[in-house]
Design a protein that fits this description.
This protein has 246 residues and is of the alpha/beta class. The chain folds into two domains: 149 residues, Rossmann fold; 89 residues, no CATH class. The protein has a five-stranded parallel β-sheet with strand order 2-1-3-4-5. A two-stranded parallel ribbon has the order 6-7. Helix 6 runs parallel beside helix 10. The radius of gyration is 21 Å and the shape is elongated. The protein starts with a strand and ends with a helix. The mean pLDDT is 95.
């Protein structure tokens, strides 16, 4: 049986490495042919089982791209979307497909992605009333530690709100306090020592590094959720970045 990874960027490459390491036959497909693994346009995928979608969630016609690819492959057991997507995306695809469309966001720091994916529980979700036990067993064999969420939208929101956006929010507060310290002539690190023991005992006063939020996760993911108040994260980041240039 063969697992297919669609999109061989950081996420797809890591999922591919994980599955190969766990002795699953895999094919990696990407628009950039140099990134493809065990695949060419003239090759035939033998006994396809799971399709792992790792395309950028913000690309135009994400849903159509996934559905078009599903129609090209016969006998798939299930589709697992690992991409960060706009809430409701997975359900829309499920409504147009007869096979199970599951959503399972990735977690981890990119520089140690494979190590982190092995460490973290893999949250998986489905909008089907009942999922074949063989599919569940197959996913457990691949990802080992699994926690099932009740709906795909719950998992889609979890990735955006509880992971990347929350992380950005915490950095924002560090940025704000850093700017205030600089304005008042106070040492940032010394001031934050006041929170050390509180955080040790209560775990709710984390000190974050007040850097500029870059990369392709925190700020870009804000565009995937329709809630204007969260745009403040981007604005504070821009204010902080401007202050560093003055």
């Amino acid at each position: 049986m063969t697992d297919i990874i669609l999109g061989m960027g950081e996420v797809g490459e890591t999922i591919y490495e994980l599955l190969v390491e766990r002795n699953f036959d895999c094919v990696g497909i990407d628009i950039d042919s140099s990134k493809c693994k065990n695949f060419s346009e003239i090759s035939t995928i033998v006994n396809p089982e799971y399709l792992h979608v790792c395309l950028p969630g913000e690309i135009e016609e994400f849903e159509k791209t996934v559905l078009d690819f599903i129609t090209k492959i016969n006998d798939l057991k299930a589709v697992l979307i690992h991409s960060t997507v706009k809430p409701g995306t997975t359900k829309k695809i499920q409504e147009k497909s007869e096979i199970p469309i599951l959503y399972s966001p990735v977690r981890g720091v990119h520089r140690r992605f494979l190590e982190d994916i092995k460490k973290y529980t893999k949250f998986i979700s489905s909008d089907m009333n009942q999922l074949d036990s063989k599919i569940k067993l197959g996913l457990e064999q691949r990802f080992h530690k699994i926690n099932w969420m009740s709906t795909t939208k719950t998992a889609e929101l979890a990735k955006i709100l509880v992971d990347t956006t929350y992380y950005g929010w915490l950095i924002n507060y560090a940025q704000i306090t850093k700017m205030i310290c600089e304005k008042e002539g106070v040492d940032f690190d010394e001031m934050w020592k006041f929170a050390d023991e509180i955080h040790e005992y209560l775990g709710n006063r984390p000190k974050m590094y007040p850097g500029i939020i870059g990369g392709h996760c925190v700020i870009p993911n804000l565009s995937l959720i329709e809630y204007d108040n969260l745009e403040i994260i981007k604005k504070i980041n821009e204010t902080f970045e401007k202050s560093k240039k003055e």
